[in-house]
Amino acid sequence: MALSRHVCFSIRNTGFRAICGATAALLIGAFCGSAIADVPDIGGVPTETDTDIFTSSEGDWAAAVHSYAFVGGDGADVPAGLPVPADGQTLFAYVPDMDDLATASVDQFQVGTPGGFSILVAGHSETILPSPGFEEEDRQNPSGTQVSLPALSVTYLYNGDFSFDAGEFSVLYFLSEGLPGQVPATMRGGASVTDEQEVLGPIPEPSTFAALCVGAMLASRLRPRRNAR
Description:
The chain is of the alpha+beta class. The chain is built from 2 helices and 10 strands.
């Protein structure tokens, strides 16, 4: 029986280590494996960039969303006019770019912050003009910006005369705690048609998760010893 308990514990412990190791590797890769994608220039020097395509299931609109992360600390170089992140903070910027052939409007773009990080400020820029290929007359600023409480998402609204239409673009941003990783984002348009992709957003530090895994493994190692007594 003792041997059976030992074998079962070893299997469980090995599996737990594998799960923690794999998850920690994903989190570390999300931060350390930063990639600079081919995105429009908005100024500053981003730590990481990405581009994702959102499409309507009805085929009546599509939009590319270019996302940028500027990690705070010494030497942080952000686009002119945007807030500068401090240590432990990241500035996230987004350039949604509506397809020229879209026949329906988008009325909402939302970025999730599943880590529950504090959103310090959120808004849009009326002066940054991405390059190349963007024209000032195609700029469409959102009608409003909402931050959920607790801060689980940032929503940019395009209502009424501020609808997001074919060929238009915006420059959006928010400043938050956390490091850059992949988080869920949604874009809604047409007959409440929503598409979800993953964009750059705040995630916990990899070291925080790794510490939790180590603590859990140490605690699990102690359980068989107490049972043996």
